[in-house]
From TrEMBL, chains A, B:
Organism this protein belongs to: Alloprevotella rava F0323
Name of this chain's protein: Ribonuclease Z
Enzyme Commission designation: 3.1.26.11
Keyword entries, A-Z: Endonuclease, Hydrolase, Metal-binding, Nuclease, tRNA processing, Zinc
Annotated cofactor note: Binds 2 Zn(2+) ions.
Keyword Iron: no
Record's catalysed reaction(s): Endonucleolytic cleavage of RNA, removing extra 3' nucleotides from tRNA precursor, generating 3' termini of tRNAs. A 3'-hydroxy group is left at the tRNA terminus and a 5'-phosphoryl group is left at the trailer molecule
InterPro entries according to UniProt: RibonucZ/Hydroxyglut_hydro, RNase_Z/BN
Active site: D67
Family indicated by similarity: Belongs to the RNase Z family.
PANTHER family recorded: ZINC PHOSPHODIESTERASE ELAC PROTEIN 1
Amino acid sequence: MEKFEIHILGCGSALPTLRHHPSSQVINLREKLFMIDCGEGTQIQFRKTRLKFSHLNTIFISHTHGDHCLGLIGLIQTFSMLGRTAPIHIYGPQDLKDFLQPLLEFYKKSIGFPVNIHCVNFRIMDLVYEDRSVEVYTIPLSHRALCCGYLFREKRVLPHIRREMIDFYGIPNYAINSIKEGADWILPNGECISNSSLTFPGEAPRSYAYCSDTCYLPKLAEVITGIDLLYHEATFCEENAARAQEVMHTTARQAAMLAKSAKVGKLMLGHFSARYENESTLLKEAQQVFPQTILANEGLVVNV
Amino acid sequence: MEKFEIHILGCGSALPTLRHHPSSQVINLREKLFMIDCGEGTQIQFRKTRLKFSHLNTIFISHTHGDHCLGLIGLIQTFSMLGRTAPIHIYGPQDLKDFLQPLLEFYKKSIGFPVNIHCVNFRIMDLVYEDRSVEVYTIPLSHRALCCGYLFREKRVLPHIRREMIDFYGIPNYAINSIKEGADWILPNGECISNSSLTFPGEAPRSYAYCSDTCYLPKLAEVITGIDLLYHEATFCEENAARAQEVMHTTARQAAMLAKSAKVGKLMLGHFSARYENESTLLKEAQQVFPQTILANEGLVVNV
């Protein structure tokens, strides 16, 4: 199966600690890299993964709180020092431009490639990026800033060729692509070999949603129903539910309730408050509601 | 002797590596903290020292290349989250304002204390900061940016009291300060006890200079003659001297030549290029010219 990996670069919250870095993750989808959020120090965390910097062309920012975007300008400058000339595309709510443009202007002499900022519609679910393998949609969230999550939906995977049947009928190479697209094959004697004898179905398309930062939004379940993996913030445990509500964050239990009602395959908790010495309480609390829960951690790689 | 420590938070150069963080250091002078430069990730490096964030009120920036200042806004926001209300003062060449002011403006709602930016005269040696224990001067450097180093000169340390003499003559506590300042003591019978019998000299004032980034400037020796500790960039080794000149940096050997002609007490090399797997060549090269040379390293604490 082709790669669809989530690399956790940082899963702490606003106050950095010696245990967690601020928010960032890299998605490796068939060797094309996508970044979501880019807190301070992300470029060093990125380097640790040994993924290729040059395979990253697209960055999605959830919102402009410092722990989600302060690493952008350093990352951009490093790319430039490494000789990058290919454009980079950065998606985010409209104030991302107000944050980033003055920095790009200040450092323009040292940035040798185009940086394209795309303001996304963060109030509705909107298709903001598409290539031949994936569609990316915004997910409206509710936080103390213009904020959205992102939903990655893999496109339909083409069926696989039954090599032994191709050989048996002596079907030439030039016909393979059209057969993958669904064509039958006509033998010289006029006999039709149906597509279903020549192929077997590709894997089911996979999906991943990133929801951080946000207060608990039960209705999110509608838009992430049945996805394979949900990364959801769980800044607090239930004991601090009042505080969570006040600062528009979610508790681990609430994240699990959402995962359960959306019937997702797996839940990964992140964006941990600096107040917890470890996250075992958060994990336990969530697993009581939704057993298929794991904790994010720097360096963790999860297959969707 | 009272503290005058240099804590190295980062001593790499522009391209961050897994071995070195970008430039930053904290000076602990009698429990008052001063920061010089603040590259990305400095707040985490600072936290590792276990020094008290609240004891830092003054930051000196050499120049606005990203590896010397991108950590400022994150540090400021963290201070605010921790409840700081005391103002912070940041000194640097005039374009520091162009870099930092838009960020402060963007994040103004989340910064709960005054951030005062002071543009320094970086073309001449200028007294830019003074308190009762130290004077800080700019050191004009030559780089691909408006850039200066900083010289910390400890003020004269008051003489120490000879406790046994104070007791012997029954001198009251209220007189101690004036005796420290140089006064004699007159006994009830009119006899004069000279100050020199009541005190012994304080330690010689210490001095520290930070010179990064710059090309090799032999005439710097005049302004740093006889200082106790010199931190000087040594981005390259002699083999890359042409490259050093081209990008306005210094080689380890050149830094040592400067240290030797300025007769400093000790030389610490830093701002290492990412191209070196370790800095043993740089150290060897410098020590051949100036044996009292050490390498900076993250976590190193040097007493001036």
